[in-house]
Backbone:
């Protein structure tokens, strides 16, 4: 009943883009959305890496618009994906983290974290549902991570998508068994296969508008590249910050997949009719890559955990080789796709993001909003989130970016960290004590936003917390040759 209700509402709301015979207008673009898992801000050539090789992605950057200040909505996978699908900040859908929000040793957790949802509720109208009702054929290929079956959330085709956060079974190498993707023979590489399936989907739907969400499991752990590519990068001189041969091999395979899709669009003369996005769900994993010059990594609200490489190519609109420095965030994708396709916003569905169309037309433009926000009322195990001696990648915290300024608040003690990203992209100088008025301005704005979206802040003390406990970081192991 729920699916029929949403279908009727969306069909009625999209009548304005249908012709008299019910056919979708011919000039509506196809959509290809590359969503890479755990790719850091500088993990591709166009963002500065001299070790990892990504010629196809770099070529796409030269043909489209690069966003230097693009952000994921969360520092890890599932919440970023839920925000992308709903166009809403995390407090609205309740997916704040991956799995248990109390990950880490209980004696170090001062607070009881907010409860976390792991499945996107069917009551939300996803961008796929909106586009499907508007006449698009929709497909998700790869990581879903928001429940057992994305075909209940607006996708006509699902290949390899379940609630899993990383490749199941044998990892990236076959044999493996996924929904609509079963391979018993050894030797196939998952990233290659997903690219092949994406090309087949385009071929099969070349005569009608389509939305292809190619959401690779790569470059998420386990770090498993193809053997020949690993050997290639072992023989390549490392750079100061990038030197992981297996990870480099994974990036090259992602790049090959992107290249295969783009070549298919060229071959079918669909390139000029296709809107392309390249993006990532959170920052690079600290054990696999370096996010330098950014501070931190996946799991943290520092820039290294949330700032992402992003390209948008809209033929005839975006200026080839252009660059935009306006801060944008994952929730902006939903309203952008609605506007470029002429799809009405689903009735009653709240959108927190803004359409990027004004920026796509003018890279020097500005969006009409005060700030962007993050809310992460959970614990993630692993050191490095907040020094000194914190055994978590992050403890419960929130953040705001307003112009060049960024403020992080830690809920355990109300501690504030204020950074000027224009002058200090590495977030090395906390200005909260030196500039209390600026810190107060951002904190007040963040408090108003939390009230607006009903963001829960954990306050209950954890009875297992031991204030006298002393955490000792594990001794660093000598890195192995990769």
Residues:
């Amino acid at each position: 009943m729920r699916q029929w209700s949403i279908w009727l509402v969306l069909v009625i709301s999209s009548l304005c883009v249908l012709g008299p015979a019910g056919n979708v207008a011919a000039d509506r673009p196809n959509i290809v959305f590359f969503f890479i898992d755990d790719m850091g801000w500088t993990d591709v050539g166009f963002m500065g890496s001299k070790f990892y090789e990504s010629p196809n992605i770099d070529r796409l950057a030269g043909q489209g618009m690069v966003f230097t200040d693009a952000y994921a909505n969360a520092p890890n996978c599932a919440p970023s994906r839920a925000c992308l699908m709903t166009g809403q900040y995390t407090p609205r859908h309740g997916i704040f983290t991956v799995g248990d929000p109390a990950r880490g040793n209980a004696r170090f957790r001062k607070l009881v974290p907010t409860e976390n949802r792991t499945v996107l509720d069917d009551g939300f109208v996803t961008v796929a549902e909106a586009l499907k009702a508007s006449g698009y054929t929709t497909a998700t290929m790869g990581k879903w991570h928001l429940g057992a079956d994305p075909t209940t959330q607006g996708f006509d085709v699902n290949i390899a998508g379940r609630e899993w956060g990383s490749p199941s079974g044998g990892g990236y190498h076959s044999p493996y068994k996924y929904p609509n993707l079963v391979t018993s023979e050894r030797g196939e590489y998952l990233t290659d296969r997903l690219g092949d399936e994406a090309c087949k989907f385009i071929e099969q739907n070349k005569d009608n508008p389509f939305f292809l969400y190619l959401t690779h499991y790569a470059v998420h752990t386990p770090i498993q590249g193809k053997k020949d590519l690993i050997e290639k990068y072992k023989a390549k001189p490392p750079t100061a910050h990038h030197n992981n041969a297996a990870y480099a091999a994974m990036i090259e395979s992602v790049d090959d997949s992107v290249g295969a899709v783009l070549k298919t669009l060229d071959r079918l003369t669909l390139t000029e009719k296709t809107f392309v996005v390249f993006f990532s769900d959170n920052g690079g994993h600290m054990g696999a890559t370096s996010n330098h010059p950014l501070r931190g990594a996946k799991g943290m609200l520092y820039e290294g955990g949330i700032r992402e490489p992003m390209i948008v190519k809209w033929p005839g609109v975006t200026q080839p080789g252009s660059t935009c420095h306006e801060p944008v965030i994952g929730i902006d994708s939903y309203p952008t796709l609605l506007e470029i396709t002429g799809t009405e916003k689903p009735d009653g569905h709240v959108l927190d993001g803004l359409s990027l169309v004004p920026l796509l037309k003018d890279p020097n433009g500005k969006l009409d909003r005060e700030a962007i926000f993050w809310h992460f009322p959970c614990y993630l195990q692993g050191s490095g989130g907040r020094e000194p001696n914190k055994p978590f990648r992050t403890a419960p915290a929130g953040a705001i970016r307003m112009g060049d300024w960024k403020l992080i608040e830690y809920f355990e003690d109300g501690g504030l960290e204020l950074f000027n990203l224009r002058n200090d992209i590495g977030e090395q100088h906390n200005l909260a004590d030196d500039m209390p008025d600026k810190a107060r301005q951002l904190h007040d704005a963040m408090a108003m936003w939390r009230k607006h979206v009903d963001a829960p802040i954990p306050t209950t003390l954890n009875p297992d917390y031991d204030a006298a406990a002393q955490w000792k970081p594990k001794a660093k192991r000598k890195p192995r040759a990769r």
